[in-house]
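Example record for the data management plan.
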Amino acid sequence: MEAALSDVDDRLALLQERVARLEAQMAFLQRSLGVSDEPEPEWQISSEVADLISRGERKEAVRLVREETGASLKDAMRIVDGFRGAAPEA
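Corresponding structural encoding:
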């Protein structure tokens, strides 16, 4: 019985080492690529932005999203392009 427990402990230690190596590799890749594992914020768009999008005024909508949220250009474009008729803020 003790031999079986020792084998389990050894396997667990190997798995813990492997997970630690994988986490270190992921951290290196994230730093190298400049990405984060933080979840992206869920943005709410204003009625003004929704109106601009509905009128096809993408550039103005992106500009206003950046102004309202402080989002980067890339994030603002993603917000505007991802808008699919969600209810805007009141």
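Summary line stored alongside the record: The chain has two domains: 1-38, 47-82.
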